[in-house]
Amino acid sequence: MPEEKKHNSSEHENKHENVHILEWTAPGRPFKQRSRQFYLTAILIALFVEVILFLFAQYLLMIVVVSLLFVSFALASVPPKDFHYRVSTEGIMIEDRFFLWKELYDFYFIKAYGIETLRIRTESFLPGELVLTLENVDKEHLLRALTPYLPYREYVKPTFMEKSADWLTKNFPLEKEDKKK
């Protein structure tokens, strides 16, 4: 449950005081439970690619394909642990990692696997973007809490990789969509 900390104008007089604005606990990443069909389709595609790579004697690429398959299976089968998120007057804290406002660029909201997420782009190349899941946090309340510190983007143009991934998942799904949605 999100907790809101009220603060008055006298607390803002001391610029070095770190006042907590909002904090919540939610999963560390968007997660969707995958069906058996997802795993079987992924294995079949990987086997097909492995045969082609074997015919062209690309043994290192074969290892890369197997390792990518392993990572995707690990991420698809293990649910994320809950993270503790905190927004304060100094910046954002995710678990034990603190990001100052000057290290962050802007933010926007997007849905991933049907879960509302907050994306915060960073000034530095790594991590590049912070993804915070909003399980039980009011989006409008979070928007009001962040806008004094970061610019809000209603629309962020998708990158080539995002467009490619969307096209692949739309045209070559690894599992059937639920019809009850």
Structure explained in plain terms:
This protein is an alpha+beta fold. It folds into two domains: about 5 and about 20-30 and about 85-150, no CATH class; about 35-80. The chain has four helices and eight strands, in the order ββααββββββαα. It has helices at about 35-55, 60-75, 140-145, 160-170; strands spanning about 5, 20-25, 80-90, 90-95, 95-100, 105-110, 115-120, 130-135. Strands 1-2-3-4-5 form a five-stranded antiparallel β-sheet, covered by helices on one side. Strands 6-7-8 form a three-stranded antiparallel β-sheet, with no helix packed on it. The protein is elongated and about 65 Å long.
**What is the overall number of helices?**
4
* Helix coverage percent: 25-40%
Order of helices and strands: EEHHEEEEEEHH
Ends distance: 26 Å
Spatial order of strands in the largest sheet = 1-2-3-4-5
The major pleated sheet works out as:
5 strands, antiparallel
* Overall number of strands: 8
Number of domains: 2
The geometry reads as: elongated
